[in-house]
Design the sequence.
C-alpha cells in the first residue's frame, strides 16, 4: 500500500518540526495512542488501539528515524504487530516546506501488511488510515497553532528532550505511526 499527501499546517516550520519531536504532543494527537516511549534518540516504541472495519485490536510497534535534516526532512522505518489482527512494515519519507507563516508537510508512506489486516482489503485499510491521519493532523494543528507570544522553544518539554523528529508520519501517523501499527 502507498499513501502520499501534502498537509498545510498553520504554524512555522521550526515549530512544526519541534512539535513532531515532542513525545507528549504526539501522544495527545495520535488517535488511540496508549503509550509512546523513546528507546533512544532515533528509536521509539508505541502502543495504539484502533478499529479497522470489524477488526478492533491493540497494536505494538517500533519505529526508527534516519536521514535527519532538521528542520526539513527525515526517513521513518518501522514494524508493528497486532497479534492475530496482523502486522505491518513501513517506510515513510517526510519533508517540511515553508509556506509563509505556515508549513507544507509532504509525506510518502509505503506499507506492507499481513494477517487479518491484509484480508480486510487494501481499500478499507487505506480509507481508515486516511481518516485517522485527518484526525491526527486536526489535533496536531490545534496543539501547535502559534499563540501571540509563543516560540518553537516554548513547546512542552522542548528544552529538555532529545531530538525525536521521526514522529511525523505520523506520526504521521497518524499515517506513518498508525500505518506502522495498523497497516500505517
Sequence:
Amino acid at each position: 500500500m502507498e499513501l502520499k499527501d501534502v498537509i498545510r499546517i498553520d504554524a512555522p516550520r521550526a515549530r512544526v518540526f519541534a512539535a513532531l519531536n515532542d513525545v507528549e504532543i504526539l501522544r495527545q494527537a495520535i488517535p488511540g495512542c496508549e503509550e509512546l516511549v523513546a528507546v533512544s534518540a532515533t528509536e521509539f516504541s508505541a502502543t495504539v488501539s484502533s478499529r479497522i472495519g470489524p477488526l478492533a485490536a491493540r497494536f505494538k510497534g517500533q519505529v526508527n528515524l534516519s536521514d535527519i535534516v532538521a528542520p526539513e526532512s527525515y526517513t521513518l522505518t518501522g514494524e508493528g504487530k497486532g497479534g492475530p489482527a496482523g502486522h505491518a512494515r513501513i517506510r515513510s519519507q517526510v519533508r517540511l516546506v515553508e509556506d509563509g507563516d505556515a508549513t507544507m508537510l509532504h509525506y510518502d508512506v509505503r506499507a506492507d501488511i499481513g494477517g487479518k489486516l491484509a484480508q480486510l482489503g487494501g481499500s478499507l485499510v487505506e480509507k481508515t488510515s486516511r481518516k485517522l491521519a485527518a484526525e491526527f493532523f486536526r489535533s496536531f494543528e490545534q496543539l501547535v497553532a502559534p499563540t501571540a507570544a509563543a516560540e518553537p522553544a516554548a513547546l512542552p518539554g522542548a528544552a529538555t528532550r532529545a531530538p525525536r523528529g521521526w514522529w511525523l508520519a505520523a506520526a504521521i501517523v497518524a499515517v506513518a505511526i498508525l500505518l506502522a501499527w495498523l497497516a500505517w
About this structure: The chain is about 30% helix and 40% strand. The two ends are 9 Å apart (CA to CA).
